[in-house]
Every structure is written in C-alpha cells, then in structure tokens.
Request: fold
Amino acid sequence: MSVFDSIKHRLDKLLSESKDNKILLLDDITINIIELTYTTDQIVKYNITIIRNIKNKGEKIPHLKALAILSIDSINFLQAELKDPKFAEYKIHFIERVEKIHIKQIAESDKFKLVKDMSEIYINYKAIDTDIAILPEYNLYNLLLGLRISPIIRYQGNSIKCKETIDELDKIISSNRELFSFLRPGPKPLLIVIDRNEDLLTPLLIPDTYQAMISEFCEYNLNRVVVDKKDHVLSCMYDDFYKKNRFEDYEIFTRNIGNIIKEYKEITPKAGNDIKQMSKIIDNFQRIQTVSNDVKRHVSIMEEINKNMGERKIFDIIGIEREILSEQNPSEHCVKLLKIFVNTEIDNREKIRLMLIFCYKYRGYDKYIKELTKILYKLDRTLEETVKKFMIEIENENIPLYSKPIMGFKIVGEKYKSKIERIYELINIKKLNLDLFPFVGKYDGSENIGSIIIYVIGGITLTEYKIINSLNKLDSDKKIAVTLCSDKILTTTQI
Reply:
C-alpha cells in the first residue's frame, strides 16, 4: 500500500461510516492532510455539509453530528468545544498516539456526554504523491503504523541525528509491541534513515523538471502554489496536465503547455448565434472548462518560473554549473567562475552555490579554491564560514559520488546518480556497508527485502523524488518498491 493509499483508505472508511449529513471538524494539520487527499467534490459525496476548523468558533448547529479528525496539538480547542458543544454528538479520531492524560482531559471536558467514539488512525504524515511523504522524524512511528509494517531498520552510523532518531523510534516500538505486531508473509520491509549531510551536492543543483522547478522558482508548499496572490492546488487527482508533465524537463513541458493552449483554441468555438456552434459548446462544455482551467493555471505558473529564472540570471549561469559537473577542467572553470563573481547583476546566493559545487567537484585543488574564495570573501565575509563548514561536511561522506580523478560525471536528468539512488542500488544487491549503515537488531544484510522506506533527516529535493518514482516504474524482477520521506522539501536557496 502506498503512503497516499494508506491515508485515503482510513479516511474513506471514516467518512463512509454514516450516510447522515455531518460536519467535518478539522485543525490546521488535518486540513492540509484532507486537501492533499480529496477534492471538494469528493468530500461532498460523503454527505459532508460543512468543514470547520476547530479553533474557529462558529454557530451552533444542534441537528448535525460532528466527525472530528484532529492532531493532538488541538487538545485544548477540543476541550473548549466539548464544554460548549455546537453539535449533536462527536466522533473523534486522532491522527497519532493519544496519551492517558489526554483521554482523561477529554473525559473531564465531556460534561454533556456527547463523545460517542474515539480512536487513533495514524495518518499524521503528508502524502504529496503516491510514493513520497513529508513528516518530522519523531513521527516515523506514525508512518509505520499507518502503513501497518514493522520493518528491519538501518541508519547512517556517523550521524548523531540518525542515531537519536532511531533510538527514539526503537524505544516507541519496544514499548508498544502490540501495535507493531503485523504478521505478513514474505520478505520484510526496510526503513533506512540517512542524514542530508551525506549528500549536500544534489540540493545545490538547479532542477530541470516541471514539479521541481515549481518548488524552486515559485512560492510552493506541499502541492500549493501561489502566483500573483492566487492560490493554485496541483494534484494528480484532477489535473491531467500536471500528472503527465510533472517529471518532464523544461523543454518538453514548455512545449506541452503550448499544446494545451492550441487544444483550447481548437475545442472552443468562436462566438456566434449559430445553432451548431451552441450545440458544440454544450457537448464539449466539461472538456472546455477543464482545459481552460489547465491553461490558466499552468501558463501563469510557467510565466512565474520564467520570471524568477530571469531575475536570478539562471540562463547566464546554468551553463557553467553543468560544465563543472560534466567536465574535468578546473583551471577553465575557475576562470569562468571568477567572471561570474565580479558580475554585480548576479546575486551572491548564486555565486556561493556555484562555489560550493566547485568545491565539491574539485576538492583537493586548493590553488583554485583559494583563488575563488579570495574574491568571494570580498563580496561577503560571512560566506567564509559557509565554505569552511561545507568542506568539513563533504569530507565525512560515507559513499563518495565518484572516485578521483572525476571523469564522466553527468548532470541531474542525465546519468548523474544522487546518493539516494546509490544507496538504493547497494541495498538491492546487498552490498551496503554494514559498518557505515548498521542495523538495529541482529541482521547481517543477507535478508531479502520486500520494500524500502528511505527517510532523509534535513530535507529532500523533488529531483530526488523523480528518481524514486522512476525506480518504482522499472520493469524488473529485481525491483524493490521504495518510498521517499523527509521532514521538508528543499530548494537550492534553503540548502
């Protein structure tokens, strides 16, 4: 079961329990989960007449029953609601574990005895697609319970963050054995927790696919995009263009946007009173409306991408970025970067990004690195510490991206392989180093793995998600289904 299906399966069951009209009582966290799972039309089919945020005080509707889907963060709002009830009864479902103290607080607040049901449904993670989820590391137990798995666990041994996360997860599992006693035949799933610091290069690279470029160049938050103060929701559920083009590169998706504009013109009859024209409009109304919405949405997003690429001078610097990655010529690349560094029209953030890519590629070429840093520090002295920290971090890598000297290194979208893909391949062939990535418990790496969850502490890129999605589509007997998870989506400016 995918992360998206695991959420939808539980919500479908809750929403369809009663055919009566009802109000859906949510909080800030669960509103986001619902929006990622359903369209408005789909929600209405479950006889939901009103959706209300529990923190907003509304009028009393005593003839309606409330279905509350809440996070534990809303316990105070729930107590206030029960003390001054607005609805006939309450069925409360928490998306995570509920402690005994919380149950006691709810019972004490329910003076009118209106709580008819309460349960834990374990969906406190945000599935932005079938095989990617966003959740904080302390909520990993929730993901495992949501997917109904008790996996083999590995982690990056030289990361304190990974060790602390795994220790806490193991503690929760050990003290709640009855919750994790899932009996499933066949190979066991694997959870591997890695640190973003294991691969600091991938988040520095300018993405070249539609979904990743939206994240990079627009105001993006978990499938929501704001362009010119207008909110757009991008969902594979009802946006066919987005579904088909989210992994396409810049050249292809810009061409395809041109194609839907052309289609819109073809299916939209010219204005007139002709009966045939009117009939054609009526027959094609739904398709015309769908294509019209797609055109407006994606043309505005495309214009926003192009505008921000222009402001950041991406077309002026993308060439040298790709050259550094794909060619071995430190002296020539150093000269080209020096020209960029003295260009006042290019933002310092882009200069430091290119500098870090150069440092990663040409570590050990101290002559050129010193020459570049000398110029860079004149622009902004605070950048010195950034470069020093970066150089220390990349020296602690467990799996180098390539051997020295660097030859034939390809950019993202061609033959470049991120650390996530390399780790996946090593797990697949049972050659991931046991000392660098130890197990929790008595395992030796020879175990057959049925599926993999890769959790990255510190963020993932949507370029990496494209790689995971591609791996899941491989037609191979050796393929292992993989889900990518992290606490956030990263862009080049955030890293």
